[in-house]
Amino acid sequence: MANPTVLVLYNQPLLAKDHPDAQSEHSVVEIAGEMAGILSEYGFRVTQFGLGFDPALLGHELKKRKPDAVFNLFEGSLDQPETESFVAGLLEWAGVPYTGSPPQTLSLARGKHTVKHLLKGARLPTADFVVVDKLPVPKCVLEFPVIVKPATLDGSVGLDQKSVCVNQRQVKERVQYLLTTYGPPVIVEEYLDGRELNVALVELPHLQALPPLEISFPGARHGAWSILTYDGKWKPGSHAYESTPVKYPADLPRATTRRLEELALKAYRLVGCRDYARVDFRLNAAGRPHILEVNPNPEISENTGFSSCLGSADISYKQFIVRLVEQALTRRNAPKPTFDSSAR
After folding, report:
1. Quick one: average pLDDT of 231-246?
2. Is CATH 3.30.2350.10 what the domain over 196-313 is classified as, yes or no?
3. Tens of pLDDT, residues 131-163
4. pTM for the full model?
């Protein structure tokens, strides 16, 4: 029997390379090549496809290539981030198994504010917030400082030092800028001035939380806010990038580590993640963890913090990539719901 065929699916970059937000979009092309190389090395028959504006092309490619599984790296476009979940839905409809979370999870997690409502309903700790989706900007009812960010974009898009605001005038200016540049909604959130931590989770097949990773800010300039900005995430060589090193595993009290892992597991299940995810945290002044975001299908290139965490589970990076595909393949013959057409 021939080895399984895998289609590595990613979003075709649509922004010009000189666009200020282009790096977060263009990086997926390199990641797709990295995944394809690993899977080929392990004997899979691999092809790649970058999907642009026309969703019909995906159906055409699936019919033509007939993959046994799809390695799903499609993140949605910056102007239509909701297409991330649409593409997963098309794969479901086509009956092609794929890696990562299902469409309902991607749709839910796409809205930071939506997930925060869910977290609050489940009595999981998250910072207080308000949502602004149109002008005029209402009076901020939260205690300053606050952090203002696009509610539906990933990858620290729209985040820089001006994102943290200490008065109403700054909030008004920042919300207006984000609404104009990225569109609604905008989330205004209590700023927690504590340590920033991530917990990676894998489900291969048993769900486990890996030891926390810390994003530290030792090189922050005097007076700068300790936040992971867009430049800090995507622009090597910039001061913001060089001053936000990752420390793994984080040096934390055992009780704090247990609490982070407990909260991450609950958040993963609450949002309905599958295969892998990352939950981002910030500690408050008292050292208590608060959930910032739940990230299904986070970036998993070899140079990310996520890959650093795998060793604690005795999983090599390449093994992780291969096991994602192997797990997707087990879903090929998953039972489908049946209906009695004679029932009325």
Report:
1. 86
2. no
3. 999 999 999 999 999 999 999 998 889 999 999
4. 0.92
- Which fold would CATH assign to domain 126-190? Dna Ligase; domain 1 (3.30.1490)
pLDDT at 344: 47
As a three-state string, the secondary structure of the chain is CCCCEEEEEEECCCCCCCCCCHHHHHHHHHHHHHHHHHHHHCCCEEEEEEECCCCHHHHHHHHHHCCCEEEECCCCCCCCCCHHHHHHHHHHHHCCCECCCCHHHHHHHHCHHHHHHHHHHCCCCCCCEEEECCCCCCCCCCCCCEEEEECCCCCCCCCCHHHEECCHHHHHHHHHHHHHHHCCCEEEEECCCCCEEEEEEEECCCEEECCCEEECCCCCCCCCCCCCCHHHHHCCCCHHHHCCCEECCCCCCHHHHHHHHHHHHHHHHHHCCCCEEEEEEEECCCCCEEEEEEEECCCCCCCCHHHHHHHHHCCCHHHHHHHHHHHHHCCCCCCCCCCCCCCC
